[in-house]
């Protein structure tokens, strides 16, 4: 097929790669003069959503990797320049640049009566030109149209800045600043602004669920992202039916057989691994003086410039209880902020939190709903982006909600020839691997190797219901996905790269790694189309036990035997203060 890919950010790059694997003819259009999307800081820097100067990943490079080019230096964090370098290496390795037309802005995508797609492109120095394709992948992402229509601040006389334009805190020095909203990027901005502002206040309507980037003062928190944990939290301990087919979900019997075997193998692995480490070859690696964020280990930290103290950990735990209105948060129902670096400034009173809401403004004076008022010079909007699919001129995305597409991607009305890739945001995990798996599915659809399910509309409704019930405390974040692992496993099962149950039974060590150890997307290259079994297996088998001890594994095994009524009420981060 002749396939158009719109956007050369992470989602667009992996889409090109997966389509080329299936020998399709690919043309990608991107408005920038180089690849990388929001990670590339060239072009019209102030007018586009871009990475700010000090942006650092909120999950490790391991989890931000594509499965066909895994990061090899452990679960370390990098800044936006490091991630852009990774994307450039990926493009170089698979010769993706030769398929990209830069400085080319797509203006319109139109579905024709003959089933083809017309794409209108404004290219540098020329008139808009129409191209014809058999299929289209929209990979331009949800960060296009900023949400600036905040009626409560209508008429504010000071300066209003949306986070998309934020690059550093230079413009906020000595100012009285009100920030509205808080998410991962907002956490960084609030820390930086409150460090230099005369006064900084943040107004929030809800408390996001906070997760520090580091545990035990050194390891990446996404070390704790395991299948056993995710399936326990969002499936087994819940009365919300999980409808997608994935690990052990074919039937009630298979689920319990799988769990029984996995737990047996897990228990058996503990003494075997202990003996192996106790009496085996002792290669003691050189101990780095830096943690996984590249900062000094001493004093111990749980996030960027955030010391690992009981006060900080207690604050996070209390905040998280508020996120679920003190009703328990063992299985979360709200978006995450995998960034707690703003917390020390709250404790130091440099950042003031207002969770009562804004009533109205008069001039530069903001009146809050708790009957207080305060004057500000600037308002920083950390209010996210609006859903905008106007690029698709005669295609309707119902309610502008990607949950009305199959797997957040495939429109049920066009036989799999239209895909929106990268419009899914797991509350714990990364967009790139989600985009890659959507792209692999799309490539197989274009090749005719798979088809959308005959009951696709019914499945969309069931999966949408599951997501909305789990994300009930973040109803406006329609890209959000409770569990990256369960979402990816379900796609893998449909396109044939889900490792079979019977093969896992025959390989106990691998089964333990896949179920109890840190999630590693190399598992989707063990089998199926375009697999790389030996390299994927080696990458998986080098994963360490979460936290480098067996307490976490034993906890997951114990919880699998308990009814949900015996589970902990809250997910507390007491491990944060361990040395």
Could you explain the architecture of this structure?
By secondary structure, the protein is an alpha/beta fold. The protein folds into 3 domains: 2-145 and 385-500, 3-Layer(bba) Sandwich (FAD/NAD(P)-binding domain), CATH 3.50.50.60; 148-208 and 335-381, 3-Layer(bba) Sandwich (FAD/NAD(P)-binding domain); 222-280 and 287-293 and 508-525 and 539-577, no CATH class. Helices cover 30% and strands 16% of the residues. It has helices at residues 10-21, 80-93, 184-196, 227-236, 252-279, 310-323, 343-347, 431-447, 456-470, 484-495, 501-505, 508-516, 533-541, 551-560; strands at residues 2-6, 25-29, 100-101, 104-111, 117-123, 129-133, 135-138, 145-146, 159-162, 176-180, 199-203, 209-210, 214-215, 219-220, 301-303, 306-307, 336-337, 352-354, 358-362, 365-368, 373-375, 378-381, 385-386, 418-420, 425-426, 480-481. The strands form 9 sheets. Strands 3-2-1-7-24 form a 5-stranded parallel sheet, with helices on one face. A 5-stranded parallel sheet has the order 9-22-10-11-18, covered by helices on one side. A 3-stranded antiparallel sheet has the order 4-5-6, with no helix packed on it. Helix 1 runs parallel beside helix 8, helix 4 (227-236) runs parallel beside helix 14 and helix 5 (252-279) packs across helix 12. The protein is globular.
Give the topology, please:
Elements: E1 2-6, H1 10-21, E2 25-29, H2 80-93, E3 100-101, E4 104-111, E5 117-123, E6 129-133, E7 135-138, E8 145-146, E9 159-162, E10 176-180, H3 184-196, E11 199-203, E12 209-210, E13 214-215, E14 219-220, H4 227-236, H5 252-279, E15 301-303, E16 306-307, H6 310-323, E17 336-337, H7 343-347, E18 352-354, E19 358-362, E20 365-368, E21 373-375, E22 378-381, E23 385-386, E24 418-420, E25 425-426, H8 431-447, H9 456-470, E26 480-481, H10 484-495, H11 501-505, H12 508-516, H13 533-541, H14 551-560
Parallel strand pairs: 1-2, 1-7, 2-3, 7-24, 9-22, 10-11, 10-22, 11-18, 12-17, 25-26
Antiparallel strand pairs: 4-5, 5-6, 8-23, 13-14, 15-16, 19-20, 20-21
Helix pairs in contact: 1-8, 4-14, 5-12, 5-14, 8-10
